[in-house]
Design a protein that fits this description.
It contains 14 helices and 12 strands. It has helices at 15-23, 50-59, 89-96, 122-153, 157-174, 189-193, 219-230, 240-248, 252-261, 268-280, 304-311, 313-317, 327-332, 336-341, and strands at 3-8, 41-46, 63-65, 68-73, 100-106, 203-208, 234-238, 282-288, 292-299, 319-325, 346-348, 359-364.
Length: 366
């Protein structure tokens, strides 16, 4: 299990260039005209994690398998998209199927690259896109509420349970607020999630800047970062052009040397992954042995049987216990045998909450 992020934004903000760089493919055509992306392109990348390499070296694992992050490059939206302008509602539908939204904003000046609105103003662009997503949600939910009301009158249990929640969300949307601003209680979350509303998804703002501003940002990025903070969201500053160049370099050392010349410590990909994990409340656990070392992803709060189920449903169904050692203890004890001698290898039961960096060996019986 990884996570799935839809890359959205106006045309010509650098979405496809970023997608190509992040996935190190040319699957999405990056051209200087609107709507060059006709179908949503999906790319998977391995999530870099130095801990995985470290435990693999200790265990002499023959294979290393990282967890995966999926990006979906969605065609540029324009003002009026919710009413069918540009390429219309078909792309709004693609966004609904993602777990989170990466909103790419143009924060660079370049007379050679046309801006669909004529000038560079990321906060205006941000408002344009998010208004279209909100309007699409409102139109969709209004239709669904009408249908729910008819079913509720016929004593449909699901409709009766969902209707008051939908009503609260619709009120927020009609007031110009995103679905996630509605006062949903913990008990209502499961039903609320069934609505699959675009404006309920967490957002990571990606400020695309010129190469010489990747390390420092600029006045445009400062405004986006302030806005993101006011919304309880996150923002990162990257240069899609730099990411494309890094992706073309074969060796890790060449990549690091190139980044250093620009005053950068890491790639934009690492920033996006790190913030994405925070965004979706995810954590990583590991399994390791002579055959392979592997990283897995679960949501914060997951219990040991749920983690086992990420590997195989039989592991969760027949869960007995989890033999567990923390990453730090595994490294300090130079592996599982040393951790066992030091008393750091534990047996945990069904109620054990998974912690980031846990190394598991699951016992099960089916």
């Amino acid at each position: 299990m990884g996570f799935n992020c839809g890359i959205v934004g106006l045309p010509n903000v650098g979405k496809s260039t970023l997608f190509n760089a992040l996935t190190a493919t040319a699957a999405a055509e990056a051209a200087n005209y609107p709507f060059c992306t006709i179908e949503p392109n999906t790319g998977r990348v391995s999530v870099p994690d130095e801990r995985l390499d470290k435990i693999a070296a200790i265990a002499n694992s023959a294979k290393i398998i990282a967890t995966q992050l999926e990006f979906v490059d969605i065609a540029g939206l324009v003002r009026g998209a919710s009413k069918g302008e540009g390429l219309g509602n078909q792309f709004l539908g693609h966004i609904r199927s993602t777990d989170a939204i990466i909103h790419v904003l143009r924060c660079f000046e370049d007379d050679d690259i046309t801006h669909v609105e004529g000038t560079v103003d990321p906060l205006r662009d941000l408002t344009t896109i998010e208004t279209e997503l909100l309007l699409a949600d409102m139109e969709s939910l209004e239709r669904r509420v009408t249908a729910m009301e008819k079913k509720a009158k016929s004593n449909d249990a699901e409709a009766k349970a969902l209707l008051p929640i939908a009503g609260k969300v619709l009120k927020a949307l009609q007031e110009g607020k995103p679905a996630k601003s509605a006062p949903i209680t913990k008990d209502e979350i499961t039903l609320y999630n069934q609505l699959q509303l675009i404006s309920s998804k967490p957002i990571l703002y990606v400020c695309n800047v010129a190469e010489n501003e990747a390390a420092t940002g600029n006045s445009h990025t400062a405004k986006v970062i302030d806005y993101a903070k006011s919304q309880g969201a996150a923002a990162v500053v990257i240069s899609a052009a730099i990411e494309a160049e890094v992706a073309s370099l074969e060796s890790f050392q060449d990549q690091q040397d190139y980044l250093e010349t620009l005053g950068l410590k890491e790639t934009g990909l690492k920033q996006i992954i790190r913030e994405g994990y925070k965004l979706l409340d995810l954590l990583t656990f590991f399994t390791v042995g002579p055959k392979e070392a592997r990283a897995w992803t679960v949501y914060q709060g997951a219990k040991a049987p749920q983690a086992a189920g990420v590997i195989h449903s039989d592991f969760e169904r027949g869960f007995i216990c989890a033999e567990t050692v923390s990453y730090d203890d595994y490294v300090a004890c130079n592996g599982e045998a040393g951790a066992k001698v030091a008393g750091k290898l534990r047996q945990e039961g069904r109620d054990y909450p998974v912690k980031d960096g846990d190394i598991f060996h699951f016992r099960f019986n089916v």
